[in-house]
Design goal:
Layout lengths: L3 H9 L2 E6 L1 H4 E2 L2 E2 L1 H16 L3 E6 L2 H8 L9 H24 L5 E6 L1 H5 L1 H16 L3 E6 L13 H11 L4 E6 L20 E3 L20 H14 L4 E5 L5 H6 L6 E4 L7 H9 L2 E7 L1 H8 L10 E5 L7 E5 L5 E6 L4 H7 L7 H5 L13 E3 H5 L10
Parallel strand pairs: 1-4, 1-7, 4-6, 5-6, 7-9, 8-10, 11-13
Antiparallel strand pairs: 2-3, 9-10, 11-12, 13-14, 14-15
The structure holds glutamic acid.
Length: about 400
């Protein structure tokens, strides 16, 4: 039987991101047709019940691996990228065919983190995905592995699925993996390992249970699934981590069966823009500020002005995200800067009225405007300042 809480979250989950891991859809013989067909059947049932579903799927590299007759994922990045190019079309063909049996149209969407780090491209990607959903098409999303290098990578599809959930204002993330959910010990090593059915989304206590060691084919292990669940919890979205190997798992979850681990969301969600700054953009440097500026930012909700800046480290451009550190070198905020790092060095310690004289131009009075500043304490508590989700 489903708990009333789970039931109510599921009944409100109209737009759902479903993430399928490599270990779920690939076996020793390659892509498992039965599993792909089962997933497609369940998703088509959801769509028929007026849900909107975005599928984030791994399996490009593992499919390429099997096609090339390899048994182990190579260490070389370019070989992994080549395998992804070989496998992505196999993956899409399998989904096209499986969804096609139900007359369900699908679309391939390949993205890199860099695509979402720029606000305009982020909003473009959002519009495309929302248009596809509007047209009742299931977007099938993967990282664009062939072109993504480390700096522009999501790293793993768990992270990608969290970004997609935020990008599309999804109501739920369902993460299908090769285990039944989060256990208090590694279930492959301990017979007495206990499944944890419910986690308060921001409970960092569960981090200790989640191994960062991936399986043979996947990338992030349970740790990256827990991190993804915590990220979406901040945006007010629940996650269920469950076994994608179990037959009809999606259908059973939506029928209310108590499967997997449910991560509860935070009640006051962080707005879309702040979530994007804190999680989708990656920090390119640090700005160290003085005590006065630190109090103004944390206690009084002020912007960061050049006068409070003591030090700048790293090279970053206007519009990049940076960590803001207090004099004790503790990160107190993440913010999006209005100036290039070199320019900030020239204006640090100065009054805003001196910016033009020092640089020969002036974008804004603030180095980071408060609307583009996410306090670390905001990530842990509520955020009443946000007015819109994106
Ligand atoms: N994008 C990779 C693939 O399709 C998977 C990344 C991951 O395992 O999270 O093979």
């Amino acid at each position: 039987m489903s708990s009333p809480l789970r039931k109510s979250l599921l009944s409100r989950a109209r737009r759902v991101v479903i993430k399928v891991g490599s270990a779920v859809i690939t076996s020793t013989h390659g892509l498992s047709k039965d599993v792909v067909e089962g997933i497609a059947a369940d998703i088509c049932r959801l769509v028929a019940n007026r849900h909107q579903v975005l599928l984030v799927t791994s399996g490009a590299i593992s499919s390429g691996l099997r096609k090339m007759g390899l048994t182990k994922k190579p260490k070389s990045v370019s070989q992994q990228q080549a395998l992804a190019a070989i496998g992505q079309s196999i993956l899409m063909m399998a989904y096209e065919e499986a969804f096609g049996q139900y007359g369900q149209k699908v679309a391939q969407v390949l993205i890199t983190r860099d695509d979402l780090a720029h606000r305009r491209r982020y909003l473009n990607a959002r519009n495309t995905l929302l248009t596809l959903l509007d047209w009742k098409i299931v977007p099938i999303i993967n990282e664009n592995d062939t072109v993504a290098v480390d700096e522009i990578k999501f790293g793993d599809n768990d992270n990608l699925s969290a970004m997609v959930a935020n990008l599309t204002d999804a109501d739920m993330l369902l993460c299908l993996t090769s285990t039944n959910g989060l256990y208090d010990k590694d279930p492959t090593l301990h017979k007495d390992a206990r499944l944890i059915p419910l986690v308060q989304g921001l409970d960092r206590g569960v981090d200790q249970y989640a191994s960062a060691v991936p399986g043979n084919l996947g990338t992030g292990g349970m740790a990256s699934k827990v991190k993804a669940a915590q990220k979406v919890a901040l945006a007010g979205v629940p996650t269920i981590i469950a076994s994608g190997i179990k037959d009809g798992i999606i259908r059973r979850i939506f029928q209310g069966e108590e499967e997997g681990t449910l991560f509860l969301p935070r009640e006051t969600p962080l707005c879309g823009r702040k979530h994007w700054i804190a999680f989708t953009k990656s920090c390119k440097g640090d700005i160290i500020i003085d005590e006065g500026a630190s109090v103004a930012i944390v206690e009084k909700g002020k912007s960061l002005l050049p006068s409070g800046i003591r030090e700048v480290s790293g090279r970053f451009s206007q519009g990049d995200a940076v960590n803001v550190l207090n004099p004790l070198r503790e990160t107190i905020a993440i913010g999006m800067v209005n100036y290039h790092s070199g320019d900030i060095k020239k204006i640090m310690g100065a009054k805003s009225s001196e910016i033009e004289a020092r640089l020969g131009f002036r974008h804004d009075d603030e180095v980071i405007h408060r609307d583009n500043l996410v306090l670390i304490k905001e990530l842990e508590q509520g955020d009443e300042a946000c007015r819109s989700r994106q």
